[in-house]
TrEMBL record:
<dbReference type="GO" id="GO:0016757">
    <property type="term" value="F:glycosyltransferase activity"/>
</dbReference>
<keyword id="KW-0328">Glycosyltransferase</keyword>
<keyword id="KW-0808">Transferase</keyword>
<protein>
    <submittedName>
        <fullName>Triphosphoribosyl-dephospho-CoA synthase</fullName>
        <ecNumber>2.4.2.52</ecNumber>
    </submittedName>
</protein>
<dbReference type="GO" id="GO:0046917">
    <property type="term" value="F:triphosphoribosyl-dephospho-CoA synthase activity"/>
</dbReference>
<dbReference type="Pfam" id="PF01874">
    <property type="entry name" value="CitG"/>
</dbReference>
<dbReference type="InterPro" id="IPR002736">
    <property type="entry name" value="CitG"/>
</dbReference>
Length: 276
């Protein structure tokens, strides 16, 4: 079991490392984008860490506290997906319980808090759902039901019903491969991000641009990943792809969210957390 202050520190480290990484299409230290700056995300990481690591809090309370603090500090949604993915990991690390048990033991307050956090963050491309619409003030369903309903169209919701299978199946193997190449933390994060972008259609791209564009972005990322030599620190090569996506208003935010969560998972385990 890890203390809240350690969890908060590791969360901040994961967020800041992800910002140092050249993640094509996203905001990063090499280039801004989508009317957002790196400073917005740095501030968001700082102010959301206490809520994310709040002692004894449930998943929903952690997400809502982080989103509320972020909204007050930067006035926009910079980390809803990050908090949704990291909150269960933080609770598992603090309690020493398996992640699947933490995900299975959510209560009604978790759903109310998560729905409130989503409304407060007002993520782009959210739209409306026929069932379990988060934009209403109606009493939400059990969180597990809501996530299962959204899972076919949203990878973060899918994580809640698959035991975070994308992290164990995509992110952690890519992280291990990058570390084996001797890459530093930022370039390791770049490699993890491109692995996600190449493996599955990004949910944020899918919501805003549709399946045809999302599939094309994945295919392009897969081709790029096949020819990348990470040991050469390919800044120019990645920046070309980065500019192409940003010129089209394409922001693969879900891949960036999963990158942070993957780094956070690895940091927690390296620090001694045993939730898998």
């Amino acid at each position: 079991m890890l203390p809240p202050e350690t969890i908060a520190d590791l969360y901040r480290t994961a967020c800041l490392t992800e910002l140092d990484a050249l993640k094509v299409g996203n905001v990063h230290a090499y280039a801004a984008g989508h009317r957002m700056q790196v400073a917005d995300f740095v501030r968001s990481a700082e102010v959301s860490a206490p809520g994310l690591a709040m002692a004894g809090a449930g998943i929903g309370a952690r997400v809502l506290a982080g989103v509320a603090a972020t909204r007050e500090a930067v006035g926009q949604n910079t980390n809803l997906g990050i908090l949704l993915l990291c909150a269960p990991l933080a609770r598992a690390a603090e309690t020493g319980r398996p992640l699947e048990e933490v995900l299975a033991s959510v209560v009604s307050a978790d759903a109310r808090d998560v729905f409130a956090a989503i409304r407060l963050a007002s993520p782009g491309g959210l739209g409306r759902a026929e069932r379990y619409d988060v934009t209403t003030d109606a009493e939400p369903p059990p969180l597990s039901h809501a996530m299962a309903e959204a899972a076919p169209r949203d990878r973060i919701a899918r994580a809640y019903v698959t035991g975070f299978a994308d992290i164990t199946g995509i992110g952690l193997p890519a992280l291990a491969e990058a570390r084996a190449l001797g890459l530093d933390a930022a370039w390791t994060a770049s490699a993890v991000h491109l692995a996600y972008l190449a493996a599955v259609p990004d949910s944020h791209v899918l919501r805003k641009h549709g399946s045809e564009v999302a599939d094309a972005v994945r295919e392009s990322a897969s081709a790029l990943r096949e020819r990348i030599d990470w040991t050469a620190r390919p800044v120019a090569q990645l920046l070309v792809h980065d500019a192409q996506l940003k010129d089209r208003g394409i922001n693969p935010g879900t891949s960036a969210d999963f990158t942070v969560a993957t780094l956070f998972w690895r940091h927690l385990v390296d620090e001694g957390a045993a939730f898998v």
